[in-house]
Amino acid sequence: RFICLHAKAGGTLDDYNRRLAGSQALKTFTDAYRAQGIAFVVLGDFNDRLTLSITSGQLSPYRNFAQAT
Questions:
Q1: Is residue 69's pLDDT more than 70?
Q2: pLDDT surpasses 70 at 2
Q3: Which end of the chain, N or C, is more open, meaning fewer C-beta atoms within 10 Å of its C-beta?
Q4: What is the 3-state secondary structure (H, E, C) of the chain?
């Protein structure tokens, strides 16, 4: 399975909050796949980084993936 992602671009707090909400929804979805043993690949344009966000002063909206075990 392939999951194609195109996250909200931009550096405003509203843009960040949309990426954060999308990341949380995607994590819930992919966790369910993992629990069922379903293989998948996430491809696309995340429009942010895995370390610190492009939005000043914010953590990455994708830190939930970077911290996954």
A1: no
A2: yes
A3: C
A4: CEEEEECCCCCCHHHHHHHHHHHHHHHHHHHHHHHCCCCCEEEEECCCCCCECCCCCCECCCHHHHCCC
What is the C-alpha to C-alpha distance for residues 54 and 58, in angstroms, rounded to an integer? 8
Span 12-39, pLDDT tens digits: 999 999 999 999 999 999 999 999 999 9
Q: Is 45 exposed, middle or buried (0-12, 13-18, 19+ CB in 10 A)?
A: exposed
